[in-house]
Structure formats: structure tokens, C-alpha cells
Specification:
This protein is α/β, with parallel strands linked by helices. The protein is 23% helix and 34% strand. It has two domains: 4-224, Rossmann fold, CATH 3.40.50; 231-317, RNA polymerase II/Efflux pump adaptor protein, barrel-sandwich hybrid domain (OB fold (Dihydrolipoamide Acetyltransferase, E2P)), CATH 2.40.50.100. The protein has an eleven-stranded mixed beta sheet with strand order 6-5-4-1-2-11-10-3-9-8-7, sandwiched between helices. Strand 1 and strand 2 (15-23) form a beta hairpin. Helix 2 crosses helix 3 (114-120), helix 2 runs parallel beside helix 4 (136-149) and helix 3 packs across helix 4. It is globular and about 65 Å long. The mean pLDDT is 86.
Length: 319
């Protein structure tokens, strides 16, 4: 039995969303182009928008149904939601913001406490600070901590770490994975990052032109890639927890004969995904790397699947 099950149609002006899927515990990614209905999907599930037809079931309980005339208000759906432009209570300090939803729960519902959330997101020293004194990244951490402390059955995340630097984003994602497993949470996570998605073991819900009913495996996701800006992770000792932009890489079929300051790697081309102007190389090494190249460069290098290639990133391109 799924934790979340839904099938509904929603309409906003001239835009229609037809959504049908089911999810269990774990981090479940939602991916698609901007303006195709991802946020609209979450807003319907959360109760901020009302579908024109269909039903939504959460933890074996109908929270919306046109046939049964059921439409629970957002605060009664037992759903935590971190939106893109999450708003904190400016008259409350960080701790009181995180405690707000938690204090409305009964003892049985309290699986994780605000104090634990402060520790998890490394914001304990900010607990007495007010929102207008926080940076954008700090506000996102507080929003995530508040959502987790709400102890909902379902956690909705709309690009929750897009204001954080790459290193912090990685650590926060690892914390989310840990909490999700410990609490048995069902998480729906909107992202544009292919690198994030490739950490997932679950199928990804693909939202395209108002249709949200197709789940795809992560290794099929790149079939839908179109000139994405990709971010790769470097996990070597000398650049632990560092990142680089994939368009800053030098690629060669031969080892480099220089020893400049930077990061060197080599691997075998696993797949090449070509579009009109660019191609995406999936390079298998000690981990998977994704590199975008102009097709003109690709053709000059005469690169094919299974070729061994060498990569180099100048140190000043590593963030």
C-alpha cells in the first residue's frame, strides 16, 4: 500500500494539470522543465489549490475527493511543505519558528523535536536570531528544520536548497536522506539538478506540459536532457566536498602533459547524449561524471562510446 496515491485534474487559467501517481517512503524526485506543472502539482497536494476532479489519499485517508465531497484544509492534511519562496514568521526567532507546528502536535505525533532539527541543519547557534537577520541560505535551513519538526506524513520540497552553496547543499541532502530513512517519511522533491537526481534509487516522476503520470528510471532521465547546466562532484582528497561546473572542463583523448593546479581525472565514456548544439558525455570513473561539450568540439575529438578520455579542471573553476 502506498503512502501517497493521487489522480486528479487541476486548472489555473489556461493551464491544465493531469496528475496520477503513487509514492512510498524515501526521497522521490519530481523533474521537468519550468512552467510544466511541478509546483502546481505540490500546491494541489498541499491543499493550496483545489483540483476540479479526482482524489488524493495520504496514509490510507482521503484528503481530497470530488466524489466524496472531501477537501481537507492545508493545516489538516498532515503535510509539511517547503516552497521556493518560503516565508518565516518575522516576529518569532528561529527556535520559535521551528517550534510553531511542533507545538500543535500530540505526544504520539512527535517523532523528532525542534532541538534535534537545529542540530541536524547546523543552526543551533541561530536559535535566538530573528529572520530579518538571516541570510538566504540560513532561511532555507530554518524552513527545512521547521518542515521536518512538523512531523508530517508527507514532506513536499520545491527546490529546497537552491539558495545554498554547493558544499552546504550536499550536506543538507545527506541529512534529508538520513531523516527520511529514520522517520519513514515520504518526500516529494522538485529539482532541476540531474546530479541530485542521480543520487536517487527511486523512479522519478517526469512532469511535461501539464502531464504528471510517467515515472522513469534515473538512467533513462538523460533521454529528456536538453542543454542542461550540470554540476559534478569531486570527491578526491585534495578537493574534498568541492564542485566544478561541467562547462569548465578540458577533455582529451590523451593524458595531459602539464601539471597545472587543478583536478585531473580519467574514465571511459559510457554514453553520449546529443542534441542540436551540445552533447552530454556520461563518463564512468571512480564515480559518474557528466560533461557538456559543443558538438563542434565533440566532432573534432571524434569521441565515441567506450573511448577512454582525460579531464582537467583549473583550480580557479573549482567552487
Amino acid at each position: 500500500m502506498s503512502i501517497l496515491d493521487f489522480k486528479f485534474t487541476s486548472k489555473i487559467g489556461n493551464f491544465s494539470l493531469n496528475a496520477s501517481s503513487e509514492f512510498n517512503e524515501g526521497i522521490n524526485f519530481i523533474w521537468g522543465r519550468s512552467g510544466n506543472g511541478k509546483t502546481t502539482l505540490l500546491n494541489n497536494l498541499a491543499g493550496f489549490l483545489k483540483p476540479i476532479q479526482g482524489e488524493i489519499t495520504l496514509s490510507d485517508k482521503l484528503i481530497f475527493s470530488t466524489n466524496e465531497n472531501i477537501n481537507l484544509s492545508p493545516e489538516n492534511r498532515n503535510i509539511s511543505y517547503v516552497q521556493q519562496d518560503e516565508v518565516l514568521f518575522n516576529n518569532m526567532n528561529v527556535l520559535r519558528n521551528i517550534e510553531f507546528g511542533f507545538n500543535l502536535l500530540n505526544d504520539i505525533q512527535k517523532k523528532i523535536t525542534p532541538s534535534e532539527c537545529l542540530e541536524i541543519f547546523d543552526i543551533k547557534e541561530l536559535q535566538k536570531v530573528f529572520p530579518d537577520e538571516l541570510s538566504g541560505g540560513q532561511k532555507q535551513k530554518v524552513s527545512l528544520a521547521r518542515a521536518i519538526a512538523r512531523n508530517g506524513d508527507l514532506l513536499l520540497l520545491d527546490e529546497p536548497i537552491n539558495s545554498l552553496d554547493f558544499v552546504t547543499s550536499k550536506k543538507i541532502f545527506q541529512s534529508l536522506e538520513k531523516i527520511t530513512k529514520e522517520l519513514g517519511l515520504c518526500v516529494l522533491y522538485i529539482t532541476h539538478s540531474i546530479d541530485e537526481i542521480f543520487k536517487s534509487k527511486n523512479e522519478i516522476l517526469f512532469v511535461d506540459k501539464g502531464i504528471a503520470d510517467k515515472k522513469i528510471l534515473r538512467n533513462k532521465l538523460l533521454d529528456y536532457w536538453e542543454d542542461e547546466l550540470l554540476v559534478n562532484t569531486i570527491e578526491k582528497i585534495e578537493y574534498n566536498d568541492k564542485y566544478f561546473l561541467s562547462d569548465s572542463i578540458l577533455i582529451s583523448k590523451k593524458p595531459f602533459d602539464h601539471s597545472d593546479m587543478g583536478f585531473y581525472f580519467s574514465g571511459q565514456i559510457k554514453n553520449i547524449y546529443s542534441k542540436l548544439n551540445h552533447s552530454l558525455l556520461e563518463i564512468k570513473s571512480d564515480k559518474d561524471y557528466f560533461v557538456t561539450l559543443d558538438n563542434e568540439i565533440l566532432n573534432k575529438l571524434i569521441l565515441n562510446n567506450n573511448d577512454k578520455v582525460y579531464g582537467f579542471i583549473y583550480k580557479n573553476h573549482i567552487l
